[in-house]
Structure formats: structure tokens, C-alpha cells
Amino acid sequence: MEKKIRWGILSTGTIAHNFAKTVRQMDENRELSAVASRTAEKARAFAAEYGISKAYGSYEELAADPEIDAVYIATPHSEHAHDMRLCIEHGKNVLCEKPFTVDAKQAAAIFELAREKHVFIMEAFWTKFIPVYRDMERILKNGEIGEITCLSAQYGYTVSPTLAVRKLDPHLAGGALLDIGVYTLGFAAMFLGYKPEKIHSFLQLNSVGTDSVSSMLLQYSTGQTAQLTAAIQTTLPTWGAVFGTGGRIEVPNFKNPPFIRVFPNGKEPYTVERPFDVNGFEYEIREVEDCIKNGRTTSAVMTPEQTVAVMGMMDTVREQNGMVFPFESNC
Ligand SMILES: NC(=O)c1ccc[n+]([C@@H]2O[C@H](COP(=O)([O-])OP(=O)(O)OC[C@H]3O[C@@H](n4cnc5c(N)ncnc54)[C@H](OP(=O)(O)O)[C@@H]3O)[C@@H](O)[C@H]2O)c1
Prior knowledge:
The chain is α/β, with parallel strands linked by helices and 331 residues long.
């Protein structure tokens, strides 16, 4: 029988619950072996909810558990680098939530450490693994909408004021750019590439110094452009589109779309649907497991170079707008 990957979950927050729920709905080819929280009580409650046998009251205990193959890290952005380092130093394979770190330099250092320690590492950028994107790539390659000229993506949500405080907290590397702007940049990069020639941006900074709205325009050496907007406390329908000389492809919910709409000029529009097995989370989880089982330390779909490139774009945008987190040196 094939070896099951034994997962550990680091944190008990919102997306950690989604991860556990998703794994519970997938087939039996993996185990949820342990969960860790900064407080033992939260870890125990989480473990009880999902039938996880081990609950740790510190992240260190999870990292040191020799019976864990991979750790899913779902802490705030500011903590990712520290938590990944902890797991990698203990020889753990890692799947870490987006944005991978707070900047490109940190990201590159973490990838280097993982390389030295021969462990698998990947940013949990689930968008890259959503099946309908393989159809979209094929349609674009076939020239159904001609040559790509430009692209758009927007995503903005409204949450309770209490949750917004956490989402925007500069001490946790909050703000729309790092929280969800990363999706818009990742979408642009998937179709136009990871090296825009120029980035023009404007961040609407709030009273705590993070961005409530990010507006970005990427310009590529090909002449192609991407217009991207992300917002917290302003609802923008989650929507992306790639435009070409012969039509367009619209991607509602572009961060994890189960379908796309193709509008070739002069022809009937049509829909391509790829319903999820569970909720879209399952594909990146399977990718991590396949890589680990096959002895790979990085994914060929979501590569370290791509993660570092997108982090670099966010560095540029922050620099252009003077958005510095309190834990960063200003000099
Ligand atoms: N892929 C997606 O669709 C998706 C969706 C939402 C979020 N995310 C990403 O997942 C990560 C977590 O987001 P979330 O919405 O799940 O956050 P959340 O609900 O606030 O949970 C974060 C958890 O991190 C732990 N933590 C460690 N240090 C902390 C600190 N200093 N302050 C607050 N919490 C701390 C806490 O768990 P313990 O108390 O148990 O230690 C907390 O419950 C972020 O990187 C976010 O961007 C991804």
C-alpha cells in the first residue's frame, strides 16, 4: 500500500479549519496527524473537531514531532518566515500560506534554507492548481481569442470591523496588497509572465499605515498590460479576464474558478466547467504529496522563482507607496 503523508497543521485559524475540512472530504490517502496552537486548549478543541490524535500547545512541539511528514502553515503573514524556518530546521516538508513571506529577500532566504535541508517547500497558491486553468491555457494557445493584449483582475471583500483590524494590522503585515493583491499579481503572472518591465501603483493607505485599496498597472516589454485592484472593506466582485485581439476569456472568482467563459469575436460565447472534487483546495494538497512521494523538493507548477518574483512585485509596490511595516528597518 502507498505511504500516506502525515500532515501537521500549524495554527488553528480560519484557513487551518478549511484545510482540515478539505482533507476530511478527500480520499483516505493522507492523515491529519497533529495540530499545534499557541494555546493547548485551542489545539485540543481543533483536534477533537477533526479527529486528530495529537494536539500541541506550541508550534515547536509540532515541528519536533518525528511522525509528521509535512506541515501546513497558516499563521499571519508576519509569522510565515519564522514558522517555516522552525519547521525546515526540524527537517519538515512545508506548505505555507500566501503571501509566502513579507518580502522577496525573506522568501529567497527560506527557499535557500529548504534547499540546504533537502525538504520540500511551496507557497500555498492554490490558484495555480485549479484544473480549469489548464483548459484556459489550451484555449489561449490555440489562439481562440487571438494575441493577448491586456488583462484585468479585481478582488475586494468587506468583513466585520474586528476582523478588519487583524487583516489590516501592520504588525501582522496586513493590508489588501499582501492579503489578496497577491492573487491579482499571481493571475497576471500566469498569463503575462513573472517579469513585468514596469509597475505603476497607487495604494490607499489607512490610519494604521497599511493599504485598504491597491491599484496596480503592470507593463510588459511585449506591450501587454495588466490592471489590478485589491481591497479590504470595499467589495469588488472577484473577477478576472484576459483580453485578446480576437475576443476575451472571463474568469469569475479567478482565485479558484470552477469555470471560465470564452467570448471569441463573432462566435457564440461558451463556458468551460471543471467542477471541483471538494472545493479547489485539494489540488495543491495533492501536488505537495506527489512531490514528497517522488522525492522532489519544489513544485514545477508553483516554483520558488515564481513566489520570489511575485513577492518582488509587492516589494516594488510597497516601495512606490512608502508602505513599511513596523518590524522592518526603514533605512
Ligand atoms: N488560501 C486561501 O484561500 C486563504 C484564505 C484565508 C487566509 N489565507 C492565508 O492564511 C493565513 C492565515 O489566515 P487566516 O485567515 O486563517 O487567519 P486567522 O483566522 O487570523 O488565523 C491565524 C492563526 O495564526 C495563529 N497566530 C500565530 N501568531 C499569531 C499572531 N501574532 N496573531 C494572530 N494569530 C496568530 C493563530 O493560531 P493559534 O492561536 O492556534 O496559534 C491564529 O488563529 C494568511 O497567510 C492568509 O493570507 C489563505
